[in-house]
Design brief:
The complex is a heterodimer of chains A (1216) and B (128). Chain A is of the alpha+beta class and 1216 residues long. Chain A has 30 helices and 32 strands. The longest helix of chain A is centred in the first third of the chain and has 120 residues. Chain B contains 5 helices and 5 strands, in the order βαβαβαβαβα. Chain B is globular and about 35 Å long. Classes of the chains: A alpha+beta (1216), B alpha/beta (128).
């Protein structure tokens, strides 16, 4: 065996070793015995099996492949080399052989050439001889070089060479001889020499070939083994590959499934992720929206609270069911409770804060509201924690649950304390004015009075019969004062705004002079315009009386002083006479002086004595005690008096004193403030008496001071009170004048207007200038002939019972046109101090708008009611909560029911199928306010059928947009619906008919066009050709085309005729008759084809029908049977007729080729439809029959089976 | 130019006669076959295929009993269109309805739509 056998095993061995190395076998296996090694291998194989991972397999596989490749290439290399070698040898041998041949040839050539030359003696043959010689030589050389490795052959060739040289030598010699013409035949070289050479060469050649064979055999041996090895290797690798493939496949599958699962899980996770993010986004959006809503809500809440705050009101809600109560923050604050404090404000707190007197009223009101569901309006007081009394106006309404029970009470509460206060203030003011004891009057800028209070009338003596408007303030003054008033008082008032002073008023009735303190002041309105002058006049009579008394006292005092003076003078006179009696007299004088002193001591009044000549002033003790001065403090001179006068009064008083001194007057009175020892000013009244001498010049003044502080205080108080009263009065007056209610005061039996406010005038369309004051209500023929109001006024005056007239209608004529106003009028009696009626007071509030509005509503409600009853539809009304409040009479007529049943049970009159969606729609409309429109069925009582109705409902809203009422109607659309359904059907039919018509026209057009086109072409052809035979053919074709045209046209005509056939000519026809006439035409055809007709009309002999139609029917059916017969069988047609369901049923049956109904079933009866070319029909026959039969309500059916036959069944409706 | 082989299908024999005469005069068509029904034409096409002499153009009338033009074209397309994509199918008809024209051209094998009458010029123009 050679290495090529061993090497694979060697290679395998190496490969196995390499395998083990790949397994990372750590133990060294050098110097190991083979047996040990194989055991190790077996052990390793186990490990190997466990470690069969894909990478491992791949690696091993790869390695094995590489090894195999190496080995294969090795083998092929080897084989290749052998092949090449062999080829080389073959070539070599062939080369040699060729050379040998060449040698042979050249030898032969030379020989021949030589011979020829010898024979012919032609030198041209030598031309061949020498080259041949050369060639031989060269060949020999070549051969020698070729066989240089073969020693034996080399020897041979040398020998041959030697031989050849010998031969050629001989031949050359002969030739030379010949050339020299010394050749003698028989001297030619022996052929045997040449032959020897030849045989030598031949032998060499033979040897070479043998050599080649031996070598070739050797090669075969080598190469014959290669295939087996290769196959062996291939099998091994295949085995490995297969094994690896399966293992790897299995592994890959495992990995793939795992990967797939992973992928799926991943995708799922992704989906879930996406969903989550979408959901999250949605949530976020919703959250954002919610936040925005929350903000809006917060904002609205704030706004509401703000508004409530501003209006000083709050809202409350009482859930009757759960008994939860809610007060808004504002309301809690009104209760003087801090809503933010920890103290809870609950129902108990609320109750505790209510005014005990008002509690029962509140409870009653609440109870009534719960019972009657009327709105809740209560004015009540509450006492807050801090002790304040507040008035609260609570308004609310009841919220009903679905079953009409009270569920909630909710409403608002307004703090009306101020208003109430203002009211009470008003009332107080009115009381003050009325009950004031001072004269209070109001007049215009000229002094004309328009109002005078009770006290005023009394003081001035103004009779009640006399209207105050007829007086001017000046009238109240006596003549002597009037000028003063006109020139002094009134202007001052206008200029400075007020005047106050004492003068006399004169009583109207008694004419006595009344000393008064008159306060006049301007009254301004809110715009600060002067609207009049107010007068408060205080009766000073008592005052005057006091003053007079004082004066009298003073005078008495003066008198006594005078007396004293007299006595003194007497004494002085007597002095000169009786100086002797001085002592006596001085005693008497001192006594009287003492007396005087005593008096002056005794009296509390301060007395002063002013010596005008010395300007010395003497004070009595009283002065000191009155003013608290000590003797030292008083100056001697007049300054003791003058310096102590209040600076504001000083100038005036001194002026007056001076005036009096200078005048002839002897008495003087003045009031001023005197400074006392404690630096306070005391009001004093000073009465002075001036002593004058004979010339009238004053030389002494005596006076007394009286402390009038108290009086002044009282005066001041009174003034203040008057001012306050005045202010209040003014306020009251303004309010009264400007209240949007008419206020009048009428006094006396004649009901003279004492006071009329502006609004009253406006209300009754009286011009502002037109003063009603003083005019009698009775005397005015106001407003209407029957002055109802006057009656009421009189009644009140007479009875003293107040009266309240609601919505009293008055016609205020406006330029002669009627103008009705409505007002609520309250008439109150006015009593004087003795509780006698002295007048009445009216309050008039205009409610015209309300009344008119209400009247309008009533009117329209009435109209609506009438309308509802008049319309043909069934109408109803419902409250916003869905309760039906009204059905018009049509309902009762239709349902045969009554209101009670229908009100809640109307659902029962609806068709059961319609109830649910009606309820749903109705509820939806109630909640959303959408109008609803439904079609539903109501049960009609008269015939117990359901009628289709169109129901509609619309809400009616008030100006705020709240729904106050639902109005609905039901309109009978039953007939309409039917009509629509019918119309719809008819439409569908028409569409179908139109379509049919379209196809008909189309096909007809085609059938007309085609022959015409053909005709044209044929004419052209005829013109273009001269060939008579062709022409004849063309003419025939023309004929055919024309016939087709003709047929089509007549077919169309038939169709038209059939459609427009008249009913009138229907008559009783017998089937047999018609059949006979029709068969006459077909007779020839039938006999030609051996056809038979079987007719049996015994069950229906005759029919009332159109003759032409029946004829056509028979013609067409029989014609078709003939046309579409089966040529294989003899044609057989069967006809029969019978009656069924009002139809005369005619059957025509044949045994022809039949119709493929599956394919053509829908086309049979269509116009111009043909199926087979077998017969050149128009395609109209069946269409015509169908038209005819269906025209008056018949129908037709066809049954057919291919190659068996066809049966037509015509249901003919008789014409009657 | 010369056309080798065309097929005309029409239920009207007259048409066949006319076209045959027209074409024989002008000599633009080497071989012309007239078939008067769809099934017949299909049979002919089958034979042509076997003889390796498939027509270059097929003119087909729409309005035919038994098998109308559309039916024929459908069957033709399913059988021959892929094998002989160069063969044109031309619809010939007397109908001038737009609907028919659209329907016809919807078929992928139908290249053109001609109104009757068919003549040499029209055939030439179509084949170019």
């Amino acid at each position: 065996m050679n290495r090529t056998i061993i090497s694979p095993y060697l290679l395998l061995y190496c490969g196995y070793c390499a395998l083990i190395c790949i397994l990372q076998y750590k133990n060294s296996f050098t110097c190991m015995k083979f047996t040990e090694f194989t055991a190790l291998i077996a052990q390793q194989r186990k490990i190997l099996a466990a470690k069969l991972s894909n990478e491992f397999l791949l690696r091993t596989g790869f390695t094995i492949s590489i090894l195999v490749l190496f080995y294969v290439s090795f083998i092929s290399y080897d084989t290749n080399k052998a092949l090449i070698r062999n080829a080389n040898w073959v070539d070599h041998t062939h080369e040699l052989i060729r050379r040998f041949n060449n040698i042979l040839i050249s030898v032969k050539d030379a020989q021949l050439a030589q011979k020829d030359y010898l024979i012919t003696n032609d030198e041209k043959h030598l031309a061949n001889y020498y080259p041949a010689h050369e060639m031989m030589n060269s060949e020999l050389i070549t051969i020698k070089s070729l066989i240089i490795d073969n020693s034996s052959q080399l020897e041979n060739i040398k020998k041959a060479e030697a031989l050849a040289t010998e031969i050629f030598k001989k031949w050359d010699a002969i030739i030379e001889l010949k050339k020299n013409n010394t050749f003698i035949y028989g001297q030619s070289p022996s052929i045997a020499d040449a032959d020897k050479l030849v045989s030598k060469i031949l032998a060499m050649r033979y040897d070479e070939m043998n050599l080649l064979n031996i070598r070739a055999k050797k090669y075969e041996n080598t190469t014959s083994e290669a295939p087996t090895l290769l196959i062996f290797l291939a099998l091994i690798s295949l085995g490995f590959t297969v094994a690896f493939y399966f293992i790897i496949n299995a592994n890959i599958k495992k990995i793939r499934t795992v990967a797939l699962e992973k992928q799926e899980a991943f995708e799922e996770a992704q989906l879930i992720n996406e969903e989550l993010s979408a959901t999250t986004k949605e949530l976020k959006d919703s959250l954002d929206k919610i936040n925005i809503y929350k903000e809006d809500l917060e904002f609205s809440k704030e706004r509401l609270l703000e508004a409530q705050n501003i209006a000083n009101m709050g809202n409350w809600e009482w859930n009757i069911v759960t008994n939860d109560i809610y007060w808004s923050e504002n309301l809690i604050q009104i209760f003087d409770h801090d809503p933010k404090s920890n103290e809870k404000f609950d129902y108990q707190t609320y109750l505790s804060l209510l005014h005990p007197d008002d509690k029962p009223m509140i409870e009653n009101a609440v109870q009534e509201v719960l019972n009657t569901h009327k709105p809740y309006i209560v004015e009540h007081r509450l006492i807050t924690k801090s002790g304040n009394t507040k008035w609260l106006l609570s308004k609310g309404k009841v919220i009903l649950s679905e079953d009409g029970k009270a569920e909630k009470l909710m409403g608002t509460a307004i703090d009306i304390t101020e208003l109430k206060y203002a009211q009470t203030e008003e009332e107080k003011l009115v009381a003050v004015v009325n009950n004031s004891s001072d004269f209070m009057g109001l007049g215009d800028k000229e002094g004309n009075l328009i109002f005078i209070n009770k006290a005023g009338r009394k003081l001035s003596g103004l009779d009640y019969s006399r209207k105050v408007e007829t007086t001017n303030i000046l009238d109240y003054l006596p003549e002597e004062e009037k000028n003063f008033a006109i020139e002094h008082v009134m202007p001052l008032v206008i200029d400075t705004g007020r005047w106050s002073g004492e003068l006399n008023f004169q009583n109207f009735t008694t004419k006595e002079l009344v000393p008064v303190c008159w306060n006049a002041f301007i009254v301004k309105d809110q715009a600060n315009d002067t609207i009049g002058i107010g007068h408060i006049v205080q009766d000073m009579r008592t005052e005057k009386k006091n003053r007079n008394e004082l004066q009298v006292k003073n005078e008495e005092l003066f008198a006594s002083v005078e007396e004293l003076k007299q006595a003194e003078e007497n004494l002085m006179l007597m002095n000169t006479q009786l100086e002797l009696l001085v002592e006596e007299r001085s005693k008497a004088l001192s006594i009287s002086e003492e007396r005087f002193r005593m008096v002056s001591l005794a009296t509390n009044d301060a007395i002063w004595d002013w010596d005008l000549q010395t300007d010395k002033l003497w004070w009595n003790e009283g002065f000191k005690s009155m003013f608290g001065y000590k003797a030292e403090q008083i100056e001697v001179g007049i300054e003791s008096l003058h310096n102590r006068i209040h600076p504001e009064d000083k100038f005036k008083i001194l002026k007056e004193i001076r005036q009096h001194l200078n005048s002839k007057k002897s008495q003087w009175t003045g009031e001023y403030r005197f400074l006392n020892s404690t630096a306070n000013y005391i009001h004093v009244m000073d009465r002075g008496y001036i002593l004058r001498n004979e010339e009238g010049k004053p030389y002494r003044m005596l006076g007394s001071l009286i402390n009038i502080s108290e009086r002044k205080e009282i005066e001041l108080e009174r003034t203040q009170l008057h001012e306050k009263a005045e202010a209040q009065r003014v306020r009251l007056y303004e309010m009264l004048m400007n209240i949007p209610a008419g206020i009048t005061i009428m006094k006396g039996r004649d009901l003279e207007y004492e006071m009329v406010n502006n609004y009253y005038k406006v209300l009754l369309n009286i011009t502002a200038n037109n003063s009603l004051i003083g005019k009698s209500r009775k005397s005015l023929s106001m407003h209407s002939a029957s002055d109802e109001m006057l009656k009421i006024l009189t009644e009140v005056y007479n009875t003293g019972m107040p009266s309240y007239s609601k919505e009293f209608q008055t016609n205020i004529k406006n330029n002669g046109a009627d103008n009705y106003i409505y007002s609520n009028v309250l008439v109150e009696p006015m009593f004087d101090n003795e509780h006698n009626i002295e007048g009445i007071m009216t309050f008039t509030v205009d409610v015209t708008e309300h009344v008119l509005a209400r009247k309008q509503v009533e009117e329209s409600a009435e109209k609506m009611g009438i309308m509802f009853e008049a319309i043909p539809q069934m109408a109803w009304q419902a409250q916003p909560d869905g309760t039906i409040t009204y059905f018009n009479n049509k309902w009762y007529e239709f349902t045969g029911s009554n209101f009670t049943e229908l009100q809640y049970g109307w659902v029962n009159y609806l068709h059961p199928d319609d109830r649910e969606f009606t309820n749903t729609s109705w509820n939806h409309s109630l909640t959303t306010g959408d109008t609803y429109e439904l079609e539903y069925r109501w049960l009609r009582a008269s015939d117990n059928t359901y009628r289709w109705m169109l129901g509609r409902a619309k809400p009616v809203k008030n100006t705020n947009g709240d729904i106050i009422l639902w109005v609905g109607t039901c309109t009978d659309i039953h007939d309409q619906k039917q009509t629509y359904a019918e119309l719809d059907n008819k439409n569908q039919e028409l569409i179908k008919v139109n379509e049919l018509l379209d196809t008909f026209v189309y096909t007809a057009a085609h059938d007309l066009k085609s022959p015409v086109i053909n005709l044209k072409s044929l004419f052209e052809l005829i013109n273009e050709t001269e060939d008579q035979a062709m022409r004849q053919q063309y003419f025939k074709t023309i004929d055919v085309a024309i016939n087709r045209l003709d047929d089509t046209i007549s077919g169309l005509v038939e169709v038209i005729e059939v459609r427009s056939e008249d009913n009138k000519i229907a008559k009783i026809i017998s089937f047999d008759e018609i059949l006979k006439s029709v068969l006459a035409d077909f007779d020839s055809n039938l006999t030609a084809m051996n056809g038979t007709i079987i007719a049996n009309f015994n069950d229906c002999v005759e029919i009332c029908y159109l003759k032409s139609y029946l004829t056509s029917i028979f013609t067409n059916l029989i014609g078709n049977a003939i046309k579409y017969r089966d040529v294989a069988k003899p044609l057989q047609i069967e006809l029969s007729a019978y009656k069924e369901n009002g139809y005369a049923v005619l059957t025509v049956k044949d045994n022809g080729t039949g119709i493929d109904l599956a394919k053509n079933g829908n086309r049979i009866f269509k116009a111009f439809n043909r199926f087979t070319r077998a017969a050149q029909g128009k395609g109209l026959g069946l269409y015509l029959i169908k038209t005819m039969v269906e025209r008056n309500g018949g129908k037709l059916e066809v049954e057919s089976e291919l190659n068996v036959g066809t049966r037509f069944k015509l249901y003919l409706k008789e014409y009657r | 130019m010369q056309i080798n082989h065309i097929l005309l299908i029409d239920d009207d024999d007259a048409v066949g006669l006319i076209i045959t005469a027209v074409l024989s005069k002008t000599n633009i068509v080497k071989k012309f076959k007239f078939s008067s029904s769809g099934p017949d034409a299909l049979e002919f096409l089958k034979q042509s295929e076997e003889q390796n002499d498939f027509p270059e153009a097929v003119f087909v009338d729409l309005n035919m009993p038994e098998m109308d033009g559309y039916e024929f074209i459908l069957i033709y397309e399913s059988l021959y269109f892929e094998k002989y994509p160069l063969t044109k199918v031309i619809v010939v008809t007397s109908s001038s309805r737009v609907k028919d024209q659209e329907m016809a051209l919807n078929f992928k094998s139908v290249k053109k739509f001609i109104n009757k009458p068919l003549n040499a010029e029209k055939i030439l123009s179509v084949m170019q």
